[in-house]
Amino acid sequence: MNIIGQMAGNVWQVLNDDGQQQYKQVKEKVLETFKETPMKEQRFAMAIGWLAREEKLNFVEQGKGKRYRLFLELK
Q1: Is 48 exposed, middle or buried, given 0-12, 13-18 or 19+ CB atoms closer than 10 A?
Q2: End-to-end CA distance of the chain
Q3: How far apart are alpha carbons 3 and 44 in whole angstroms?
Q4: Could you give the percent of the chain with pLDDT greater than 70?
Q5: Is 8 strand, coil or helix?
Q6: Vertex 27, ends 24 and 32: CA angle to 5°?
Q7: Contact in structure between 8 and 72 (CB atoms under 8 Å)
Q8: How many whole angstroms separate alpha carbon 18 and alpha carbon 63?
Q9: Is pTM beyond 0.85 here?
Q10: Pairing verdict, β 21-22 and 69-74
């Protein structure tokens, strides 16, 4: 399995285990597993895109300006 697919699986697992979470918290948890992976942040974004395209994620926006937060949850 490719790294993007593995990351997508990890994102899904984190959200399945812990429920709705802030985007940056999910990112930190997933990237912790891929410390030595080149371009890991770009690949994480691709994994999020993969799950979004498969309609597996909901994006929940809260706040404005400095108080803006993006949350992820499974559909």
Answers
A1: buried
A2: 24
A3: 9
A4: 99
A5: helix
A6: 130
A7: no
A8: 22
A9: yes
A10: antiparallel
Neighbours of 40 (CB within 10 A): 17
pLDDT at 71: 97
- Confidence (pLDDT) at 68: 95
Residues 6+ apart with CB under 8 A from 19: 73
C-alpha distances in Å from residue 33, one per residue of 5, 6, 46: 14, 10, 16
Give domain limits for the chain: 3-74
3-state secondary structure of 2: coil
What fold does the segment set 3-74 form as a domain?
Arc Repressor Mutant, subunit A (1.10.10)
Q: What is the mean pLDDT of residues 54-60?
A: 96
